[in-house]
Structures are given as structure tokens and as C-alpha cells.
Amino acid sequence: MVERSFKLYDSLSRTIKPLETIEPGHLRFYSCGPTVYSYAHIGNFRTFLSADLVCRTAKALGWKVTYVSNITDVGHLTQDDQADAAGEDKMAAALKSKEGESFANVWDLARYYGQKFEEDWRTLNLQEPTVRPRATEHMREQIIAVQNLIEQGHAYETPSGVYFNVESFPDYGKLSGNRDRQNLQNAVRDVVQDENKRQQADFALWKKDEKHLMQWFSPWGWGFPGWHIECSVMARMYLGDTIDLHGGGEDLKFPHHECEIAQSECATHKPFANHWMHVTFLQVEGEKMSKSLGNFFTVRDLVNEGHDPLALRYALISVPYGRPLNFTMQTLKDAAGNVGRFREVERRIEAVLGELPTDAPLPEGHSLERVYHEALDAMCEDLNTSVAIAKALEGMKILLRQADLTRDDAVAGAWFLKAINDLLGIVRSDYAGISSEEDGSPLQVEGKTIEEWIEARASAKKNRDFAEADRIRDLLNEKGIELRDTPQGVTWIKR
Ligand code: AMP
Ligand code: ZN
């Protein structure tokens, strides 16, 4: 394997530099996950997809990857973008909304949206993280971390909660550049108005609230954690005191990541993360996504309208993560056309080789090897996805140029498609092909294989027996099998 350095822009040093791992060849990566009070939107997924591409690139270089992507299910406030807004917990507010009516309680709501988030994750063909920890499942560790910060003199208690004393950490502001203490109050989110706080900018580690829908008992009474402490705690628990890379969307730089650094570095007296990655926000039709503008898309909205999930993935990664991406329906249409070219090549290869081999060796000296390495080189240049995708298409052009594929070209094509898919995930879904249980026999539901159920559903639809078609979909759904109607036919995944 060619030795390459994997360069990424580091938001802390504000330079593009090689991503260096503490343990050679082993990336320890933490990327902030969603707050599960609603369905995630495609903007959120631009950020998660960028993290997925970091992992795929590292694996293509032969590295081991330990990737932690959390789920925030408590502590994130509704008005956390306004100075001094105490706000309401996002989960609690969602329960009171119209959509919230169908949930028994806030735990039920969090579980539901958490599950839907994981489904969308698989729909867009993101690889599973090594650990997906939840804030509510790490309460004890968060309480201990807060206690430790108090003991070390970095935090203090008031009648409303426990606050981090930003004056005690001279580096506060090093990531975001927000160093003007006087003005911090205007920018700091998640700041609770409490006249007993030492400085306005001191942020909450614990909030006392006996009425909160999700509350835990702590040395400071009943309450819930501040939003930032969960990530400091879970990153340390699963990845160690210093991690190689930390990521999230650009809005997280301040205050979330700034606060994480303060908490973690005061706890361990070591650097928290050696490299920081922030993803530029996605816009839709040139504007910020918002429900009132009617340009707010979730993954399931688009897939249910019949868009191919792989085309959506393609569109969302088509522009490098550091540049603005303006998502339009035209981008999605173009993406579908290009994803179709991969399918066309797959069909041609199958025509020569029979079934598409998944472990085809590359015939020596084949030109597709160079094209693949150029794609990988582009990914190693700060995840230059537009060049990497252009290289994937260049490979398709080489293969489609010939009316009849030779056997060698077909084998090289199979190798290339697999290598490109491992790197970019845009050729085929890693989840669609799951068709057997652990013992190797085909998965069955009530005596029929999934393929047989899909056929039965198709013939029910043909006979206009929609009730039966729906019954089949629901039956499979109950067993954790989700059917997907795509332009290429019905596929399924096991949840
Ligand atoms: P949240 O669920 O609000 O905590 O957001 C989950 C992730 O999505 C965070 O890393 C955010 O920074 C990121 N994010 C939110 N909106 C966008 C957007 N429009 N484009 C890219 N990333 C976003
Ligand atoms: Zn976080």
C-alpha cells in the first residue's frame, strides 16, 4: 500500500495539516450526534456523512478506526442560541408539540426519534459507529465529572445549578476565537440567568429542576446535566483522555466544543483533541432550511417521494465539507443520473461474469488502479469529494467506452466498484444485501423468505388489493424488516 498522509483542515490551528494518530494507524474519532427530539434533516446528515467519509478514508488507508457518535437525549435547550435564555429542554418541548401527542412520555419520544435516526443513517449508507452512546445512559459518569470539576476549583454551585468557571481556564475561547470575556455573554448559548453566577459567561454543568420531565438525583439535588458535559464524558470514556479527531457542524464550534475543551482539559490536564473538524452548513435552494420556507427536508421525506437514497447520499457529499453546499432538486436529479451509471456498469459486468463478484482481484497494471488511487489521494486532501467523485465517474467512462467488456475489464470493473464504494458509499448500500441469519440460511418471516413476501406484495398491488399489500409491509415491519420502494425496485433492510 502506498504511504499517504491524510490531510484535514484543523479548526483549532486554522491550517490544513496531516491527521496524526496517537497510536500509529489507529484513529480515535468523536463526532457529535443528533438531539433526538424530531427527525434529523438533510443538513444534519451533511455533517454525519462527512464524519462517515473520514472513517472510510482512514479505513482505505489501512487504519483501524474507533468512531464514537453520540445521541443527545437530554439537556439541549430550545433557546440556546439567545443570550441568557434558560429555555426549555428540547425533548420536553417536543412532547408538548402536535407531533408529541402520540408519545406516552419523553422517554418514549426519545426512543422513537433515536430509532428513526438510526434508520435514516442506514438509508444513507453510513457505516455503523463503533459506539453510539446516549447521554441518558451516562448520567452517573456525568455527575462524577461535574463533582471532579468542583473539587478541582473549576466549577461551583449556586441555587440554580452548577456552573463552569470560565475564568479558571485561560484557554477558554481558543477554538472559536471568542476571547472577549465582556462580550461573551452575548454569544454564549446555554447560559442561564442566575445572579449568583460569578461571570455571565459561566455555563451550566448541572441544572437543578425538580419539575423537569427527565431528572436524576445528584449531590446538588434533582436535576439534569448541561448539554456540553455529556460529550466530554463519553469521549473520554470510550476514546481516552486525548482523542485524535473531534468533529461536528460549524455551529458547534461555539459554545459546545469550546465548553467541551474547557471541561475536558480541566479534568485531565491534557489536550482534549489534537484535530478539530467542522462542517459548513448545508443550504437548500440558496437559503437556510426552515419549516416556514417550505425547504426543510428530512431523509425520509425525500426517500418516500421516490428519490434513490444513494442519489441523496451522492448529492449531499458532492461538494467538499468545508465549502457551502446548496442543495437543489436539480442536484438530486443529476446525482440520480450518475448513480445510474454505476448500476449500468454493474449490469454490464454481471453480463460478462455472471454474479458480481465482491472480492475480484485487480488484474495487474489495469488503468482503473491509477484512477482509484487518484480518488483516494483526493480524499486525503481534506476530503476533496468533488474530485474523488469525478474519479469514480472517470472509471465508469473507461468501462462504458467499450461496447463489449473483456473479462479482464469486467474483473477490474468489479474491483473498482467495490473499492469506490468502500471509499464513498455511493455505488450500493451496505445494508440492502443482508439476507441471511447467522447460520447462513435465508431470513424467513412466517415461513416465507423476504423476497417471496416482496413478490406477494407486488402481486397484491397488481390485483389492486392494497389492504393485503399494506398488511405485508406492516408484518415485515413488525419483524424489523423495512421495505423500500426505489426506482430500481423494492429493496429491504433489517433494522
Ligand atoms: P443537532 O441535532 O441540532 O444537535 O445537530 C446535529 C448535527 O448537525 C450537529 O453537528 C450540527 O452542527 C449539524 N447541523 C445542523 N444543521 C446543519 C446544516 N444545515 N448543515 C450541516 N450540518 C448541520
Ligand atoms: Zn457534542
Content-based structural category: alpha/beta
Number of domains: 3
CATH superfamily of the largest domain, by name, is: HUPs
Strands ordered across the widest β-sheet:
5-6-7-9-8
Bound molecules: adenosine monophosphate, zinc ion
Structural account:
With 495 residues, the chain is α/β, with parallel strands linked by helices. The chain has three domains: 15-279, HUPs (Rossmann fold, 3-Layer(aba) Sandwich), CATH 3.40.50; 302-424, Isoleucyl-tRNA Synthetase, Domain 1, CATH 1.10.730.10; 444-494, no CATH class. 41% of the residues lie in helices and 15% in strands. The chain contains 15 helices and 17 strands. It has a five-stranded antiparallel beta sheet, with helices on one face. Strand 3, helix 1 and strand 4 (64-69) form a beta-alpha-beta unit. Helix 1 packs across helix 13 (407-424) and helix 4 packs across helix 6 (229-239). The longest helix has 25 residues, at 329-353. The model is unreliable at 81-85 and 434-440 (pLDDT under 50). The site of zinc ion (ZN) has 3 residues, from loops.
